[in-house]
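PROTEIN ENTRY
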Amino acid sequence: MDNTEAINEQAQAHHVKPVTHRAEWVVVEKNNILQNGYVVVHDGFIIEIGKGSKSVDGPIIDHGNGVILPGLVNAHTHLELCALKNRVASQNGFLSWVQELLAQRSGFEPETLLQEAALGIDQLLSSGCIAAGDVSTMGITQELFARSPLLGIWFQEFLGSHPDKTLTCRKGPGQSISLAGHAPHTTSPELLTRLKTLSLKAKLRFSIHLAESIEEVEFLATGKGAWADFLSERGIDFSSWGIGRNLSPVRYADQIRLLHSGTIAVHVIRADETDFEILRKNGSSVCLCLRSNQALHGTLPDVPSMMKHNINLCLGTDSLASVDTLSMFDEMKFAAARFPEIPPVDILEMATANGARALGLDGLTGTLRPGELGSFPYLDLPAGNVKQLMESIAHASFQGPVNRIPA
C-alpha cells in the first residue's frame, strides 16, 4: 500500500470530509503548474491535485484568482538572534560585526530573547513558511520551536574544542533535533567530525557555516591573521586543529570528512569550481543566505556556477541581526534581482522543494504532491500565463501576511 492509499484509508476511518482548495493557479512543483487547479486535503494530507471542477463530498474553498504554492522552507535561520534586529552594524566588516553581536547578545535576558524569537516564528508563519532549519548556539529556542507548527530541524550548534552541552539527536515525523558545527574556523576538527557522525547516525542533517568570510579563508590557509588573533583573545587554543596547509574552507571540510549527502553547507561565498565539484561529488546541499551575505560581506556566492554543478541549492534568511525580515519572499526577490539569468521557477524551487530536500523533509512538504502535508500558502497574485506568474512570484514584495492554509 502506498502513502496516498494509507492516507485515504485513515481519512475514511475518521469520517472526515475532504476539503478542496481551488485557485486560478496551483504550483504543484517546478514542472507542473496548473491553471484553474485544485488541491484536495483529507485528514491533514493532500490526497489529490487536478484541474477544472472537482466534485467531492465536502467543502470547496475558492481562494480566488491568485496562486496556491508549495510550503516555503527557510533552511537556515537563528531565531535566538531576533532581538538584535537593527542593533548590530555591518558596515565595519565581518569581524567587527561578530564582536558587536556577541556584546549585544550578552546584554539581553533569555526571556527577552525568547519573546523576540516567538515573534520571529510568527513572522515565518505569516509569510508562508511551513518549515525551517533553526540554528541555536545558546540552546534556548528548542521548546519554542517544538511547540510551533513549523516542520523542520532545530540544530544545537557548537563552537570550540569541547561540547558544553549534551549531544542530542532526535528524529521525528515532522520536527527533529540535530547537531551543527558552527564553522571550521571556530570549531575543532575533532568536534566537527563527532557532530557530523552523530547527526548522520541518527539519519538527520548536519549543518555548518562554510566558506563565508575572508577571515575564515586566511585563518584556515595560514593559521594566522585577524581571526587567529580574535580566537586567541577569547582563550580558544587552535594549535592542534591541523590548519595552515593552504586549503580552501571547502577542501579543508572535505579533508576532515565533513561533507556528505546529509551535510548542509551554509553560505559558500569563498569557493571556486574545484570546491563546487567537491560539494557535488559529496552530494552536500548549499544553503544560500544572499541578503545576509551582501550586508555582511558586500559580495555574493557564485550561484550560477553552483547550479551548473547540479548542487542542491536552497535558501535561508540567516538572522535578523543581519537582515530586515525572515520572509522567504524577500529572499527570493533579492535572488531574482541579483541573478536575473536564473529562471524564476528555479528560485522558487530553492525556496520550496530544494529546502525540503536539504532538511530531509522531501515527501512531506516542498511540493503539492499527494501524500504530503496539506499546509501551504495562497497568494493573491493574478497572472495571465505561467511566465508572468513565475516572474510575479520571484519578484513579489509583501508587507502583509500571506494566507497560510493550515493542515
About this structure: The first strand starts at residue 19 and ends at 29. Residues 6-14 have pLDDT under 50 and may be disordered. The chain has two domains: 3-70+367-405, 72-358.
